[in-house]
Amino acid sequence: MTVKDMGCRTNVLHLLSDEAKIRKASPIKTTMKYFSDPNIVFLGAGMPSGNMFPFESISFKSVSLDDVNGTGAVEGCIHRDKSDLEICQDVPLGVALQYGNSRGQPELISFLKEHTSIFHNISINDWDLITTAGSTQAWDACLRLFCNRGETVLMEEYTYSSSLEAAVAQGLNCVAMKMDKDGIKVDKLSEMLRDWDVAVQGPFPKLLYTIPNGHNPTGCTLHEERKPELVRLASQYDFIIIEDDPYYFLQMNEFGAPELNVPGDVNEMQWFKENFVNKLGRSLLEWDDVGRIIRLESVSKTFAPGCRLGWAIGPRYLLDHLWNYHEVSMQSTCGFAQTLINGMFQRWGQIGYMKWLLRLRNSYSMKRDHCLTQCQKYLPNEVCSINLPISGMFFMVYIDPHKHPKFEREFKSKVDLLEEHLYNSFVQNGMLLACSSWFRVDPNHNKILAFRGSYASVDAEKMQNGIIMLGNVIKAEFCL
User: Fold this and answer.
1) Is residue 21 a part of any domain in this protein?
2) What is the 3-state secondary structure (H, E, C) of the chain?
């Protein structure tokens, strides 16, 4: 069967790393398909018996969704043996805590595929979904999958520091893409690719990494009109796009808009499609009819980061290679996380999960609105400017370094020296923001003075106090 027969129009196996090209499926793992066959006496693997696990059951209870249609808390108890399960869609502990399928537990995979189909109109036919230990692990695995040492990865000029560090640690050449308030400047990217100079910029890029919604650290969101052109460039110049989108469901209401809630006496699925699903930005997968996108999602921003559970979506034949790597590295995603989250999903159902996501949207919208209101009130606009995030949990405070009275004399007109000084002043006054230099891909691109803040983890009072302290420090430093 060819890649075209599988629903993809382009074979990109030539872009695999040398390591991935020679890696085969683990022979011992091929026996796992027989493990649940009652007609097979399974002597083929070093697996402890399920009755040796010290857990009889685990119980959980969700928070109440408190919607007008009366959806309250759900709770469940998941037992060790399949015969004792409350619902057949649960993953018994005897299975969840065993050496597991590296693709993920089938019950969870089934729910996530249905969830994906609701929110994303994927263009290729033979797409698949495989669980990961969160997006950070998935990104590291994708680097191993596609890149040899010395090869080039395109990244937004500011990007998540751990993603950058993972690429640098593998000896990769990281090249920055220009950005503005609407994300990657696709026109500038097109020019850069057209005029690529191997002698100056290194090998032609094989991989592009982007955080399209609620970008970390800038808080910007990639404009819808730029997405099809970005996908087209991947085909024209023969590279893979890794779409890392943990903040997808933190797309927010318009600034100052009231909460969005499900009214009573409506068809809930229809209402969600019209008022929630169709109002969200589209994944790059929806323009990818050739199979060049791998999308990374995670529960880190919708459940809890400590679950370390995420999933990759993309062409099945590429995810098969990711599966092969999982088998000889992490083996499988945490069994506790899979069985508990699946248990919650199955009791919530797709509509219940969407109600939870809508609750997050409303909460983050209120946090964002409060934060930016305080910034407008207490930060001196003579030297500061703030972006207006429409998704995610971050905002950037941009400061004009040239207006600092000591910028030229004491800091020698070097932005990084002033940044370090201001950072220490913030901390000494009891308030912390992240330096933008920590996220900078090109170390020579050091003309912008900015700090990343987050409205996610503090309450309204602490947020106001923090912004007041920030404003006071900036006013004192700039003699305002």
Assistant:
1) no
2) CCCCCCCCCCCCHHHCCHHHHHCCCCHHHHHHHHCCCCCCCCCCCCCCCHHHCCCCEEEEECCCCCCCCCCCCCEEEEECCHHHCCCCCCCCHHHHCCCCCCCCCHHHHHHHHHHHHHHCCCCCCCEEEEEECCHHHHHHHHHHHHCCCCCEEEEECECCHHHHHHHHHCCCEEEEECEECCEECHHHHHHHHHCCCHHHHCCCCCEEEECCCCCCCCCCCCCHHHHHHHHHHHHHHCCEEEEECCCHHHECCCCCCCCCCCCCCCCHHHHHHHHCHHHCCCCHHHHCCCCCEEEEEECCCCCCHHHCCEEEEEEHHHHHHHHHHHHCCCCCCCHHHHHHHHHHHHHHHHHHHHHHHHHHHHHHHHHHHHHHHHHHHHCCCCCEEECCCCECCEEEEEECHHHCCCCCCCCCCCHHHHHHHHHHHHHHCCCCCEEHHHHECCCCCCCCEEEEEECCCCCHHHHHHHHHHHHHHHHHHCCC
